Amino acid sequence: MKKLALSFLTVFLLLPFHGVDAQKRKKSNPSEEEQSISLDAFKLRNVGPAFLSGRIADIITHPNNENVWYVATGSSGVWKTENAGTTWTPIFDTQTSYSTGCITLDPSNPEIVWLGTGENVGGRHVAYGDGVYRSADGGKTWKNMGLKKSEHISEIIVHPDNSNVVWVAAQGPLWTKGGERGLYKTTDGGTTWKRVLGDAEWTGVTDIMIDPRNPSILYAATWDRHRTVAALMGGGPGTGLYRSDDGGEHWTQLTQGLPKSNLGKIGIAISPQNPDVVYAAIELDRTKGAVYRSSNRGASWDKMSNTVSGGTGPHYYQELYASPHEFDRLYLMNVRVLTSGDGGKTFVQLKEEEKHSDNHALVFKKDDPNYLMLGTDAGIYETFDNAENWRYIKNLPLTQFYKVAVNNAEPFYHIFGGTQDNGSAGGPSATDERQGIANKHWYKTLFADGHQSATDPVYNDIIYAETQQGGLYRVDLTTGEPLSIQPKAGMGEPHERFNWDAPILVSPHNPARLYFASYRVWKSENRGDDWEPISGDLTRNEERLTLPIMGRKQSWDNAWDVGAMSNYNTITSLAESPLQEGLLYAGTDDGFIQVSENGGGSWKKIPVTALGLAPRTFVNDIKADLFDANTVYVALDNHKEGDFSPYLFKSTDKGQTWQSISGNIPDRTLVWRMVQDPVKKNLLFAATEFGIYTSLNGGNSWHKLKGAPTISFRDLTIQKRENDLVAASFGRGFFILDDYSALREFTEDNLKKQGKLFSPRPAKWFVPRSNVGNTGADYYFAKNPTYGAVFTYHLADSYQTTQQLRKKKEAELNKKKADIPFPGWDALDAEGEEEPAKVVLSIQDQKGNVINKVSQKAQKGSRRIAWDMTHFNPYAVSDRASRYNRGGALAKPGTYQASLALVQNGKVTPLDGPISFEVKAIRTGVLQGISHEQYNSYLNEITEVYSAITAVRDVLTDSSKIQKSLAKA
Question: 10 Å Cβ neighbour count for 764?
Fold first, then answer.
């Protein structure tokens, strides 16, 4: 029997391959690249988890159906549920921003949704947006309505009687002055906008409210604020409270009874029972604060208490809500919600047992005074008994991971990472359960804010995990014990400054050797039991409060938010050459790359200005080349000075000279990390603010991988055994590019072939099981890799049917308004009978017996195809006994061959193969039966027997029918 070719996973990079392996950087036209490159075979797989979720920015419920919720998230777009959280749909994944700050529905038509992008808090980790979006169909489609330079939008109000009138509170850029900041108004549905409050420099608007009785009466809180890498100024002279009585055209500042000093972030609320009563939670000097109440629409104010949001600082909370069910009942968003029943005189902490902290959004039900819904840093919680108990929404995969690490566990390696405000976690890359990867498969490894994790290459159950600002632990996964191994300053030494996300490095030369960094580099030769510093201070070592902020040096009496400032003048990244022991690199948050060629004995300082960048550009990542000791890569980031350009550089002389390799990575796309393939030198991957890019030619040109929404990827690593690229997203958990090894063979010659079948990794042999009981629709599962042996293939040509070709010609004639000839009835009949071209993957055993074939439509480019490790079904297709019409028996582990062929118009054209591949069992059963060879041989024999029996049965059946017909005659 002719052996037909099997197609494995295909990736078609329509790259102009005349420069695939060139190392010199060439400028490319992004639009041409997009048209000429396809990565269809290589799609990222999201593996969760959802048991930690992530930061919620805003929640709105449908006014006519309380089961419909829209959820705006800090770094994962917008999600919608139509069944009160039982199931969810992401509805903003294909837009150009993923960070959102607020969402609202048009009161006149709740199918019209308005969304403000860019987080509405002032944290060190916030992402930026690109303006206001509108959907006219409940979130199915979106249109950007402008204010693209606002970066952070905190509130949107639509006029209750006129859909064309909308007010937008834009906080404006966090990291720099200017942009579009202030209160903007449109009277034409967003076609044009006019700033009616705020200024073009520092004063934005953080909150707005509308009088429910009179839409011409508006309240607004302005806010001056500026964050740098070094510090946060949380207030300024432009901060204040305002009221408008003419729909926002003119404003009066409300000052009577309010403090005269520079104010900070302000949250405002209106009493639903008596809208003349207005409340304000106001941040004062250096994060002190107070709650004020006005009973005359803001004309005068009474101080009620010294209450202010705490924790990481008022910049992160301070939203104020008034209960629709109880007059003078207030809720102040905070680490733990603060609530008052007397208009702000006294506050108590809301009961939040069995609930995460850090609250940002609150929803009431108009007909249920015991109901509250809270959006937190860990997702959404509901209470139906006035905070006595909380229900957690466990199926929103919004986890914000900073870093990622993998071990070598069998049969499925585990992934580890640290999260924003949800500790550190680990879990499997796949399971043997048919449903996939569930929340139950994940586990916490460390508490607090999680940051970088690292794995031990010898012991799969030893990992390193870290809390914010250098809290380093060695964790034994067998016992769960976290042992603190943070290096400490010695007697007489200054405070040890660790970065918020301090770097950990396991030496490629000795698995017991660790490097860790504060403002200096530390080394341990015994997995962290002992440490020694191997450098002095590699940073600028400044007093950060003397640095300019908000345009100039500021008085100590201004609104500094010291508690919100992470350490500055710290080391952010480390690398050691795998080829030259002791060749070390360190990067800092204040603009230096440091190099040591003697294990830290001496260091050479390279300012980032040598790369042509601003002097304090942040060093995100350093990677030593895996093939050349002289080569090093560095990813840099200057977004905290308002510069969102991608910066990725390469040096071939240990940092003396540099060349950019950011190529055609789009503007506004920060580069966070880069990794190099351990087999193919010029195969690179970059984690960026808006996706993952790969380069086949050392950075000359880059191509975006598919399978992920618009999301920020902060880190990458490669699991070498499985050839997997594993990525940490800041908002959707972990992603895996399963077996990307075919990219190594994406050469010009291979992609010119009519068909190319690439060698797969060994297929894991097991019988999928189910360990899940009755779950309901809200149970979260992430997908496993495709079951079976998965192949990548590439076709150089497209294969269109006669009908497709005719319609294409007719379309051209239509454009010219020319006559279209009738093809004739015979031609039309032939079109109807024509089968589309297909590729066929043929699987053979070691003796050359074809044991199964898999086919799919032939398409130009790269694709993947999978054999599910079964034999042919030996039963003939029959109208009797449907139980016989299933798949064949499961093939056994062993060595097999695969070939790829094209079938078109009845003609079979061999394309590639045979190639050899392995099927390996992930476990050994208790009872051992016959050998795999005997089993496969038996199946081949039984197939022949069944074929013979079927032929005889068909003859007997036909004979019986003839006899019955004769008897009736």
Answer: 22
Express each pLDDT in 855-898 by its tens digit: 999 999 999 999 999 998 765 544 444 444 456 889 999 999 99
With beta carbons less than 8 A apart as the criterion, state whether 271 and 161 touch.
no
Assess contact for 751 and 59: CB atoms under 8 A.
no
485 in Cβ contact with 512 (< 8 Å): no
- Residue 958, pLDDT score: 66
Q: Calculate the dihedral angle through the C-alpha atoms of 420, 426, 431, 435, rounding to the nearest 10 degrees.
A: -30
Secondary structure of residue 962 in the 3-state scheme: helix
Burial (CB count <10 Å: 0-12, 13-18, 19+), residue 736: buried
pLDDT 10s digits, 42-94 = 999 999 999 999 999 999 999 999 999 999 999 999 999 999 999 999 999 99
Which residues are CB-neighbours of 32 under 8 A, at least 6 positions away? none
SS3 734: strand
H or E stretch including 810?
A: helix 802-815
**Predicted local confidence at residue 810, as pLDDT:** 85
User: Which residue type, as a one-letter code, is found at position 297?
Assistant: R
Which residues are bridge partners to 89 per DSSP?
80
pTM of the model: 0.93
Residue recorded with tokens 């952070």: 152
Q: How far is Cα 887 from Cα 852, in angstroms, rounded to an integer? A: 10
Strands 763-765 and 907-921: parallel
Q: Where are the alpha helices (DSSP H) in 77-165?
A: none
Three-class SS of 27-79: CCCHHHHHHHCCCCCCECEEEECCCCCCCEEEEEEECCEEEEEEEEECCCCEE
Closest C-alpha to 373, from 51, 778, 54, 59: 59
Instruction: Give the side-chain half-sphere CA count within 13 A for 47.
Output: 32
Fill in the amino acid letter for 264: G
Q: CA nearest 337: which of 350, 355, 324? A: 350
State how far the Cα of 727 lies from the Cα of 451, in Å rounded to an integer.
14
How far, in whole angstroms, is CA 380 from its chain's centroid?
Answer: 19
Sign of CA dihedral 703, 709, 710, 716: negative
| DSSP for residue 890 | B
Residue 601 vs residues 596, 597, 604: alpha-carbon distances, Å = 7, 8, 11
Cβ proximity of 568 and 544 under 8 Å = yes
- The Cα-based distances of 45 to 429, 696, 709 in angstroms read 10, 21, 11
Amino acid letter for position 130: D
**Distance between CA atoms of residues 787 and 763, nearest Å:** 8
Q: How far is CA 597 from CA 444, 579, 635, in A?
A: 38, 12, 21
Plot region of 941 (φ>0 → left; ψ -120 to 50 → alpha; else → beta): alpha
> Which DSSP string do the residues of 380-429 spell out, in sequence order?
EEEESSTTSS-EE-------BBS--EE---SSS-EEEEEBSSSBEEEEES
- CA-based nearest residue to 170, from 134, 143, 131: 131
Do strands 78-81 and 379-383 pair parallel, antiparallel, or not at all (unpaired)? Answer: unpaired
Check pLDDT > 50 for residue 141: yes
Mean pLDDT of all residues in 367-381: 98
How far, in Å, CA of 474 to CA of 457, rounded?
A: 14
CB 735 within 8 A of CB 47: yes
Contact 767, 750 (CB under 8 A): no
Q: How far apart are CA 115 and CA 131, in angstroms?
A: 9
Q: Is the pLDDT of residue 333 over 80?
A: yes
Q: What is the pLDDT of residues 934-946, one digit of tens each?
A: 777 777 777 777 6
Q: How far apart are CA 847 and CA 811, in angstroms?
A: 51
Residue 170 gets the label, from left (phi > 0), alpha (psi -120 to 50) or beta, of beta
Residues 6+ apart with CB under 8 A from 339: 329, 330, 331, 332, 347, 348, 349, 350
Phi, psi for residue 676 in degrees, rounded to 5 = -115, 140
